[in-house]
Design brief:
2 domains, alpha+beta, six-stranded mixed β-sheet, about 450 residues, 12 helices, Elongation Factor Tu (Ef-tu), domain 3, FAD/NAD(P)-binding domain
């Protein structure tokens, strides 16, 4: 199919690295374009590939959960990203969380060590036309390339994403915090809990909703759309006084050892690195000005002297109208040698992005070898996700992450949620095993 002896991959984020690996492991040369270190997006800070810009959590581990099932499917398809993540874990209860710096370095080293991947450090401003190409430039695709994509496929969509702050462990007040995983799942040291009584919470809430926010100079929008999955804490709080107390600050499953009772509200801090020297404010994505973050979050007793390693930031996310643009194999409907992957396609989440890169890479390689491209069965989470984002009956397309709601109904559906998740997982993994044996190793 290709008149060139290589495949282009544009972008060395999660999806791009996974795509490059899947292509290279099949014996095909890859030209991997990455604009770092010469140019960085507003959300990136290092020169490593696969940089995690928001949370360091890759969501639930349990295979009977939607997020856990997605990761298990990826493991069975030899995902590079999952292999690196499993080697860079930090304690996080039932979640798979990683030391973000070790993770990025691990992925970078793995990609650079592959002899048939050529790293080209430059910005791509137009979709290459010289070979089969995978575009995996992420939700912060550069303006020039974004304009080129829009010129080819029509108006793109965009929303705004926010990252949570990170504080040093030694600056967290131990007298007013306690270590415990919710419902005592996992190691008790996985999370530090910062409880608030009713009066403390009400003071914090009032200051939060009135705090000054950072302007969105770069984005030129009066009313930015904010994706629900990364809603800034101050935006969520404006929905009602108890909204965040039943959301990121819910105290269920926790018991304050000072009182012996459940707190009125609680902020959880999750370990950010393997050394345990930094902690992430779970669910506290924010666009408050930096001094306001220090002032308002400092009203939480355990954070009164907190030292911020990173303040929260808000940035633009861009995605294409995939139901109108893409096929379920991640190829463009109007150009069969062009594939898209990652959050640019409207999949939402780290591992969802990597899974799309995995499939785009496999299919780009198959196109190169003149084999039929593949879409995994709808009973699998990867297959269901790719089918959803390319379903042309979806009119108001919004990003989607792994969810059992994407899968076909079970024939003997249990009323018990945990058992039901296990049923979905068993069906999915059995289906995937048969599919891999029959099709994917061509």
């Amino acid at each position: 199919m290709s008149n060139k002896e290589y495949i282009n991959v544009v972008g060395a984020g999660l999806a791009g690295c996974e795509a490059a690996y899947q292509i290279a492991k099949r014996g095909i040369s890859v030209r991997l374009y990455e604009m770092k270190p010469h140019k960085k997006s507003p959300a990136h800070h290092t020169e490593d590939f696969a940089e995690l810009v928001c949370s360091n959590s890759l969501k639930a581990q349990r295979v009977g959960s939607a997020a856990g099932l997605l990761k298990e499917e990826m493991r069975r398809l030899d995902s590079l990203l999952l292999r690196c993540a499993d080697n860079c874990t930090v304690p996080a209860g039932g979640a798979l969380a990683v030391d973000r710096h070790l993770f990025a370095k691990s992925v970078t080293e793995a990609i650079r060590s592959m002899g048939n991947i050529e790293i080209i450090s430059e910005e791509v401003t137009e979709i290459p036309a010289d070979a089969i190409t995978v575009i995996a430039t992420g939700p912060l695709t550069s303006d020039a390339l974004c304009s080129n994509i829009v010129s080819l496929f029509g108006e793109s969509l965009s929303f705004f994403d926010a990252a949570a702050p990170i504080v040093t462990a030694e600056s967290i007040d131990t007298e007013t915090s306690f270590k415990q995983s919710r419902y005592d799942k996992g190691d008790g040291d996985d999370y530090i809990n910062c409880p608030l009584n009713k009066a403390e919470y009400e003071t914090f809430y009032k200051e939060l909703i009135s705090a000054e926010r950072a302007p969105l100079h770069d984005f030129d929008v009066a009313e930015p759309k904010v994706y629900e999955g990364c809603m800034p804490i101050e935006v969520m709080a404006q929905r009602g006084e108890d909204t965040i107390r039943f959301g990121p600050m819910k105290p269920v499953g926790l018991r304050d050892p000072r009182t012996g009772h459940r707190p009125w509200a609680a902020l959880q801090l999750r370990r950010e690195n393997s050394a345990g020297t930094m902690y992430n404010l779970v669910g506290f994505q924010t666009n408050l000005k930096f001094p306001e973050q220090k002032r308002v979050f400092g009203l939480i007793p355990a954070l009164k002297n907190a030292e911020f390693v990173r303040y929260g930031v808000m940035h633009r996310n861009t995605f294409i109208d995939s139901p109108r643009v893409l096929n379920s194999d991640y190829s463009a409907k109007t150009r069969e040698t062009l594939f898209f992957a990652g959050q640019l396609t409207g999949v939402e989440g780290y591992m969802e992005s990597a899974s799309s890169g995995l499939m785009a890479g496999i299919n780009a390689a198959r196109k190169f070898k003149e084999l039929k491209t593949l879409t995994l069965p709808e009973e699998t989470m990867i297959g269901a996700l790719s089918r959803y984002i390319t379903d042309d009956t979806v009119k108001k397309f919004q990003p989607m992450g792994a969810s059992f709601g994407l899968l076909p109904e079970l024939t003997n559906r249990s009323r018990d949620k945990k058992i039901r998740g296990e049923q979905y997982a068993e069906r999915s993994l059995d289906t995937l095993s048969m599919f891999v044996e029959e099709r994917i190793n061509d």
